[in-house]
């Protein structure tokens, strides 16, 4: 084992990108175009953008994230209302439609985060620099306003151009621990006057919105996706990203902001792209999963009933809940993008319990968000719609395909990393949960480390959610294989 050759995980990631139709490196024409951009100067901006740099904007993201798309600020209103502003990086101003950079971004459709190497949709000089809402930098942004009522319902507000400045880059884990009472006030919060009160007000608004959406049937899913922790091409561990109050805050703010965007574009009678999760096609399978756990769901799809079932299951069996969540996700079907014309009946987002929804809050990372940003700016500036309905049809189909492909790349590299981590533990036994059992194979997730693999011996009779003990038989990082045999 000591003489095994090191595994080229970066090479595996590059190969996976190419295999699934991505361009992993930027062409020279793209880099020349981006290098020619001025660093600090604002591009020519129509109208008279508001100067909102003095507001106490802040961001919450991963500790190593530099491609910051959004910052937030709140203020108390009358009758217990909370006014929310979300500023989105104006990426379109530096990535014109039809430019070399735009064509590359449209081809890949999304940044791909493998845990081993990140493949950004836009060159770092843009996404982690000129168009990133980094702290202490003056930036152009599109600001989305909405009001959160005491009952958690929201009132969409105006959307407009503004100059903004991020006053503090906060980290999910630090803010989450503080809000949950298990950690100190983060240093950046403590050292920025008024920021503690600001974040607590944001948290209050988020909890209102989450409670409201949960009551309306937003699904309380919690899947496990273990990311490789890699140092100098060595896999040190598989790390599970924990949901916490800080992640919930950003999720709720972005759901409401994206809902406000659809209302804004609909009021302008513009076509757009919706983000949808259709009514589950395999509702019968979800009903069977509930029945196996002694519960009864309605014959017809019912998001509220499913949410109540999921909440009870999480309380009763938190260890197995991520695997139940994964099963429900598979039975529901994947999210997708669809072109929406004025007058169409919206499909809706079953998992979020919202009817009109899009993706417009992460233009540094997703191409659909740049498309939505261009639509917004055409309304603000009084210009013609920048896309035909036929173009939006093609984009929706293309970007749905690219999202699925990015998930396949990320999954493949995670499997390769797990194979590297475990390859010196052949013959050891592990406690595991069954995560999949079908004609395609039977799969388990180890409890520690949280790696997934296939049961190739003794898999007969295993069912999803069952706890088993397995022996590691073989690994192959280059094929992404981790094979187990059942021991009991």
Automatic annotation (TrEMBL):
The keyword Hydrolase applies. It is an enzyme of class 3 (hydrolase). One of its GO terms (cellular component) is cytosol. One of its GO terms (molecular function) is RNA binding. Residues 49-382 form the RNB domain. Residues 425-487 form the S1 motif domain. SMART domains: RNB (SM00955), S1 (SM00316). GO terms for biological process: mRNA catabolic process. Pfam families: RNase_II_C_S1 (PF18614), RNB (PF00773). Its EC number is 3.1.13.1. Keywords: Hydrolase. This is Ribonuclease R. It comes from Methanoculleus chikugoensis. The lineage of its organism: Archaea, Methanobacteriati, Methanobacteriota, Stenosarchaea group, Methanomicrobia.
């Amino acid at each position: 084992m000591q003489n095994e050759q090191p595994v080229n995980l970066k090479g595996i990631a590059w190969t996976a990108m190419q295999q699934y139709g991505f361009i992993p490196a930027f062409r020279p024409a793209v880099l020349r175009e981006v290098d020619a951009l001025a660093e600090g100067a604002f591009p020519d901006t129509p109208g008279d953008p508001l100067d909102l740099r003095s507001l106490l904007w802040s961001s919450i993201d991963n500790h190593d994230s530099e491609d910051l798309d959004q910052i937030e600020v709140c203020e108390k209103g009358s009758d217990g209302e909370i006014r929310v502003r979300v500023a989105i990086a104006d990426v379109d101003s530096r990535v014109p439609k039809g430019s070399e950079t735009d064509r590359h971004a449209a081809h890949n459709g999304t940044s791909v985060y493998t845990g081993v190497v990140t493949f950004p949709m836009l060159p770092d000089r843009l996404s982690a620099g000129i168009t990133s809402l980094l702290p202490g930098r003056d930036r152009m942004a599109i600001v989305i306003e909405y009001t959160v009522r005491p009952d958690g319902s929201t009132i969409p507000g105006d959307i407009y151009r503004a100059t903004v400045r991020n006053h503090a880059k906060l980290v999910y884990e630090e803010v989450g621990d503080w809000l949950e009472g298990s950690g100190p006030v983060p240093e950046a919060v403590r050292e920025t006057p008024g920021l503690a009160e600001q974040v607590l007000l944001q948290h209050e608004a988020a909890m209102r919105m989450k409670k409201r959406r949960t009551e309306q049937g937003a699904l309380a899913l919690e899947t496990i996706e273990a990311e490789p922790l890699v140092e100098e091409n060595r896999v040190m561990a598989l790390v599970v990203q924990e949901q916490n109050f800080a992640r919930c805050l950003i999720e709720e703010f972005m759901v409401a902001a994206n809902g406000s965007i659809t209302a804004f574009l609909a009021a302008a009678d513009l076509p757009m792209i919706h983000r949808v999760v259709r009514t589950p096609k395999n509702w019968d399978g979800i009903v069977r999963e509930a029945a196996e756990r002694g519960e009864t769901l309605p014959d017809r799809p019912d998001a509220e009933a499913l949410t109540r079932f999921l909440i009870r299951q999480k309380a009763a069996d938190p260890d197995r809940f991520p695997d139940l969540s994964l099963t429900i996700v598979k039975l529901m079907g994947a999210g997708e993008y669809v072109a929406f014309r004025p007058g169409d009946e919206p499909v809706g987002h079953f998992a979020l319990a919202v009817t009109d929804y899009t993706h417009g809050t992460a233009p540094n990372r997703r191409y659909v968000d740049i498309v939505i940003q261009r639509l917004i700016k055409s309304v603000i500036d009084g210009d013609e719609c920048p896309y035909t309905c036929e173009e939006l049809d093609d984009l929706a189909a293309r970007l749905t395909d690219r999202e699925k492909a990015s998930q396949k790349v990320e999954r493949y590299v995670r499997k390769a990393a797990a194979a590297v981590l475990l390859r010196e533990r052949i013959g050891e036994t592990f406690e595991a949960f069954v995560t999949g059992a079908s004609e395609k194979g039977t799969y388990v997730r180890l409890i520690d480390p949280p790696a997934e693999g296939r049961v190739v011996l003794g898999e007969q009779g295993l069912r999803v959610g069952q706890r088993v003990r397995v022996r590691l038989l073989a690994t192959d990082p280059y094929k992404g294989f981790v094979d187990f045999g059942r021991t009991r």
